[in-house]
Write a structure and sequence with these properties.
36% helix; alpha/beta; 14 helices; 470 residues
Length: 470
């Protein structure tokens, strides 16, 4: 038996995945070690098969090859689904009855990043499980060397065919602009639009790991400028954008207005609740109060939960929720689907709703109660300090008798609206948001956040120009 031990850069072992800068904090040797340790977990649990996919980044093919070598060294069968979106890998883990699944992806990060998202026995793999991989690597706690096998399995047509089973559109022929952002969802967009009715225009439709057109993060308004221009040029009904691995969606209406994650979830939730009355609809703590109110109005049970795709997926399974979403554009359908975050599938469901509706997406958006809010505000705060700051703020608010929801950080309700302060699980930052019905109210909420940061000895941020209609 060949001795094995390996040490990861500690910054690469995150809450929800393993991620780093290629050549600095993440190397091909790390990919082999992940395969060796994760594969050992699968093997010890009695599993025999792992599905592996990768995104379009330039470093992904080599990372995938090393990952497969590590899995094979555990004696496992590896189903290699090739380059495609993360949700297709999740789908493959169900369709191929795999015991585990690993996606090589840098998600929405810049081109020099890469990483690994994992599933074990059909469940999200995160938190202490990721730290356990670090421990196993250092201690060489892996199964004895063995000789596994691997085979190429193309599931792309099966994935699209399974999505199309849930197409429920009406007679209205839609004009749609798609922007996969040169990410790994590009080929799936071509396959999907070939099956869907309506007229479809695709921009940035080739997979290119340098992301030549724009950064593949559809939650940043700047990255949607190109699709907004194309929607106007084509007179389209809407535009749909994906992040680098197509597990997050961005949407613009026919007038070029961005629908934020919580606004999109209102549209989707109203439809799901017609067949699932009383259903639990989950959103993260950053979502607008409008969303929670509209879910209740539509006969649903709104549930505010912690930010993070792994945490949301686990809560969905626990509550039997048919639908969940995050401000970051992760949308999770368990209604007819598998409960994982899937941008192409969410797009299909949205188009079905619009093809059946007398209203345009712009009219649906305009019909929502109008509030004013900040975008997500981020303040640098050391990893060693950030959770302590939240504890201090929570204590001061308790002493003041404030109305607080503390499911993830603090979300404070006032007569003006609400403000949120939480520690990021993935970066050395504090995250804040505020929402009010008037500019003056929003200014008061921002002043509350500033006071709390100042009381904990942090610099007071400049909030000017941070208001947005929503």
């Amino acid at each position: 038996m060949t001795a094995f031990n390996h040490r990861f850069d500690p910054t690469s072992l995150r809450e929800y995945d393993i991620r780093g800068i290629v050549g600095q904090t993440l190397h091909p040797e790390d990919a082999f070690a992940i395969g060796r340790c994760f594969g050992s977990m699968v093997s010890r649990a009695g599993g025999t098969k792992v599905a592996v996919g990768y995104d379009g980044r330039l470093s992904s093919p080599e990372m995938e090859a090393q990952l497969v070598a590590g899995l094979r060294a555990c004696g496992l069968k590896v189903a290699r689904i090739g380059c495609g979106p993360t949700p297709m890998l999740y789908f493959a883990s169900y369709a191929l009855k795999a015991d585990g699944a690993i996606m090589v992806t840098g998600s929405h990060n810049p081109p020099d990043y890469n990483g690994f998202k994992m599933m074990l026995a059909g469940k999200p793999f995160y938190g202490t499980q990721i730290q356990e991989i670090g421990r196993m690597a250092v201690e060489g706690d892996v199964v004895p060397n063995a000789v596994g096998t691997d085979e190429q399995v193309d599931v792309s047509e099966r994935y699209v065919a399974r999505m199309m089973q849930d197409w429920d559109g009406g007679d209205r022929a839609l004009k749609v602009v798609w922007d996969p952002g040169n990410g790994s969802g590009a080929e799936i967009v071509k396959l999907l639009t070939a099956e869907l009715p309506g007229t479809h225009y695709i921009i940035n439709g080739s997979i290119d790991g340098t992301f030549p057109a724009h950064h593949p993060d559809p939650t940043v308004a700047k990255n949607l400028e190109q699709i907004i221009a194309e929607v106007a040029k084509q007179g389209a009904d809407l535009g749909i954008a994906f992040d680098g691995d197509a597990d997050r969606i961005g949407v613009v209406d026919g007038d070029g207005n961005i629908l934020f994650g919580d606004q999109l979830l209102v549209v989707l939730a109203r439809d799901v609740l017609k067949s699932k009355p009383g259903g639990v609809i989950i959103a993260d703590v950053k979502a607008s109060q409008v969303l929670f109110d509209e879910i209740a109005k539509a006969g649903g049970t709104p549930l505010m939960w912690k930010t993070g795709h792994s945490l949301i997926k686990s809560k969905m399974a626990e509550t039997g929720s048919p639908l969940a979403g995050e401000m970051s554009g992760h949308i999770f359908f368990a209604d007819k689907w598998y409960g994982f975050d899937d941008a192409p599938y969410s797009a299909l469901r949205l188009l079905g709703i619009l093809a059946r509706s007398p209203e345009t997406l712009g009219q649906m958006r305009a019909g929502l109660p109008q509030v004013i809010n900040t975008p997500e505000l981020r303040f640098d705060c050391a990893d060693t300090r950030k959770f302590g700051v939240i504890t201090e703020v929570k204590q001061r608010l308790a002493d003041e008798g404030a109305k607080v929801q503390d499911v993830d950080g603090v979300r404070v309700l006032t007569e003006d609206g609400w403000w949120l302060l939480r520690a990021s699980n993935t970066q050395a930052v504090l995250v804040a948001r505020a929402e009010a019905s008037s500019e003056a109210g929003l200014d008061r909420l921002k002043a509350d956040i500033a006071r709390q940061l100042q009381a904990s000895g942090l610099p007071v941020p400049d909030f000017s120009g941070e208001n947005a209609g929503h």
